[in-house]
Amino acid sequence: MAESGTRSADDDTSDAAPDTDEETSATRGADDGAAGSAPEPAADPPADPPAAPSPGDGDRSNPAPGDRPSALRALRQWHSGLGTSNRLALYGLVCAVLAYVTPIGQAVYDRVSPESAMAFLVEQADSPCFADYILTPGNERLRGVMWSADQRQFPRWQKEGKAVHANRLQVGVNARGNGEKAVAIRDISISVVSRGKPVRGAYFEGGKCGADGRDLPEYLVVDLDTLPLKQDVPVTYLQHSELQKDARKTAKALGDPITLPHDITQDGVYSFFLTGRTKRFDCEWVATITWWDGEKEHKDRIDNDGRPFRVSASAT
């Protein structure tokens, strides 16, 4: 979860912990070096060697399963099983409650300026439950840890060029009224900022998990291949163009299409999904939300923590 200025990812997390075999080898090398020295006479019995770290899910700060309270473990399992839309709804509820309880809670949800009448919370769907990936050459080993990886690993791998979203990229947005008056979202436009050859690499196919039935948020699905470069394409075009007919059909199958204008009352929340997809290119894209506060019009960019969203067609 990340705020947008609109921002969306936590890039400061580290990759999975080193394999146990490497650390064990290092420990064995140190022991062998010690064995080459003559023992001191009448030395105390050698202390027990440090226990080798046990393999886990990459989070070495976690206690052993037996040490963790069962309630906490159950909570984490429940959260990881939630669909993206359900997590967005949960985050929106938590932030709304915190805003009433403490000023810090309000600051968590506020975007750039605490005086803004609109706040956005953006979450890129990185979980393999909702995304396929291209693993770039030399990073095929990630295939074996994709399902067990901490969710914070995916933004790091993407930033380092190890993994790229394949074929489609889904972004969840919560727009929240943050002032004393109602506001209205007037437009959501999509801009393709770059387009290149598809990324080469090993294809990893994810799958649906943790969600049943139709999701509540509204949807906008966009075929990026047909859009002009570096131009904001408004939702009115996307919802009527013949070139976007198949994308609209997909959005309708997922849930209700986005309907604008949409009024948001004070502390009200409007949740929706943006999905960019490609069959031919490596695309970078952003969204722009145009909204009205009763006095003037505002525009906010929706992106991946300051960088464009990126998705590539899987090379054949």
**Tell me, what's the shape?**
globular
Task: Give the helix level as a range of percent.
Answer: 10-25%
What's the total helix number?
7
Biggest β-sheet: count, sense, barrel?
8 strands, mixed
Count of domains: 1
What oligomeric state best describes the polypeptide chains here? single chain
Question: How do the SSEs run, as a string of H and E?
Answer: EHHHHEEHEEEEEHHEEEEE
Mean residue pLDDT: 76
Give the C-alpha Rg: 24 Å
Features:
316 residues, alpha+beta, eight-stranded mixed β-sheet, five-stranded mixed β-sheet, 7 helices, 13 strands, globular, disordered N terminus
Describe the structure concisely for a colleague:
The protein is α+β, with helices and mostly antiparallel strands and 316 residues long.
Can you give a write-up of this model?
The chain is built from seven helices and 13 strands. Helix 3 (84-101) packs antiparallel against helix 4. It is of the alpha+beta class. Strands 3, 4, 6, 7, 9, 11, 12 and 13 form an eight-stranded mixed β-sheet that branches. Strands 1-2-5-10-8 form a five-stranded mixed β-sheet. It has one domain. The longest helix has 18 residues, at 84-101.
